[in-house]
Design brief:
By secondary structure, this protein is mainly α. It has two domains: about 270 residues, Fido-like domain (Fic-like fold), CATH 1.10.3290.10; about 50 residues. It is about 55% helix and about 0% strand. A three-stranded antiparallel beta sheet has the order 1-3-2. Helix 1 packs parallel to helix 10, helix 6 runs antiparallel to helix 7 and helix 7 packs across helix 10. The longest helix is centred in the C-terminal third of the chain and has 23 residues. InterPro entries: Fido, Fido-like_dom_sf, Fido_containing. Keywords: ATP-binding, Nucleotide-binding. This is Filamentation induced by cAMP protein Fic. Pfam families: Fic. One of its GO terms (molecular function) is ATP binding.
Length: about 350
């Protein structure tokens, strides 16, 4: 009997490869924000909430949604926290607007140094206006590289001395562009998620700004992803310890844990947001894309195996069904069985 434990890293990578192939071959690639505004709005709310929560922001998702949709600050949190979310959301909105066809990159390049600074400026200006970093010089504001050395991280990693930051960042941007060119013509030497993990970790190791490096690093990672035609990722606040641990392992050259975390986040974006919305109600999609708050993946798989859910199993072993079929299954599941009134008379 095969165990039902957590899928292996290799299995996660294979699932991501299949999901990305399906996105491109069956659904025509990543929908743009103009084509699928509601999808991107959902991701926008989640990312603005969770990415700032990873850094200690205490706004709950409902407060974030109200702030972004209505411009109202509900609750009684410090102004700094609302401005952190607002700034991050502004930067993320610009990033999502870059969801273009692969190859149609700004200035012919996947990423520029000016864009990295622009992302930091957009994300940090609102909070800087009310709570600037206490140690910052006037020349270290949003969009400007640090002019301070950073204390060693808790695991011992030491960012480069501040005079080296501009050169190191220019080298990092060149490395990102080179990785993009290689991905466009051939399979990478290491799994795609680990290429992304290496690039993300190297940004954080440079730590180019006096504050806001984590937020900027995740935003720039998503900028690279959407320009390559991949879905953006959201690292959830409940994953904070796993994320920090994976980053520490990446500091030593082991990108597996961080790569797996990124791969799972990409799959979640595909399954939770993109695939169910770009597929019509009768179109077959993986069962994982049809899960909701009332129906688990295990329940759908069991219903498919028992023939209670109209579904097919492909040669890759993945069960597929449609929203229409799942709705019919849920309706039949909740129908009340007729009682035998004759027996009681």
């Amino acid at each position: 009997m095969v165990g039902r434990g957590r899928p292996s890293r290799a299995t996660v990578y294979e699932r991501l490869d299949r999901a990305l192939t399906e996105l491109n071959d069956r659904f025509g690639g990543l929908p743009s924000p103009k084509e699928a505004q509601s999808i991107w709005d959902d991701i926008w709310h989640l990312e603005a909430h969770h990415s700032t929560a990873l850094e200690g922001n205490t706004l709950v998702l409902r407060e974030v949604q109200t702030l972004l949709e209505q411009g109202r600050a509900v609750g009684a949190k410090p102004l700094r926290e609302y401005n952190e979310v607002r700034g991050y959301a502004d930067a993320a909105q610009w990033v999502y607007g870059q969801a273009l066809e692969p190859g149609d990159w700004h200035d012919g390049r996947l990423l520029t140094l000016a864009e990295v600074r622009q992302v930091h400026h957009a994300a940090m200006t609102p909070v800087w206006d009310v709570a600037p970093h206490p140690d910052a010089k006037s020349s270290e504001g949003p969009g400007s590289f640090r002019e301070h050395d950073i204390h060693p991280f808790s695991a011992g990693m030491i960012p480069p001395a501040w005079p080296l930051v501009p050169e190191r960042m220019q080298g990092w941007v060149s490395e990102v562009c080179l990785a993009g060119e290689r991905l466009a013509v051939a399979a990478p030497d290491q799994p795609l998620p680990e290429v992304l993990a290496r690039l993300h970790n190297e940004f954080e190791r440079v730590h180019p700004f006096i504050d806001g490096n984590g937020r900027t690093g995740r935003l720039v990672l998503n900028l690279v992803l959407v320009r390559l035609g991949y879905p953006p990722v959201v690292i959830f606040k409940r994953q904070r310890e796993a994320y920090l641990s994976a980053m520490q392992r990446a500091d030593t050259g082991d990108y597996g844990s961080l790569g797996e975390l990124i791969a799972r986040a990409m799959i979640d974006s595909l399954n939770s947001f993109i695939v169910p919305n770009v597929a019509g109600p009768a179109r077959l999609v993986p069962l994982a894309a049809l899960v909701d708050r009332t129906t688990t993946l295990a329940a759908l798989r069991q219903a498919a195996q028992r023939g209670r859910l109209d579904a097919v199993q492909g040669s890759d072993g993945v069960w597929r069904s449609s929203r229409k079929a799942v709705d019919a299954y849920k309706a039949s599941k909740h129908q009340r069985r007729p009682t035998n009134t004759a027996a009681s008379e």
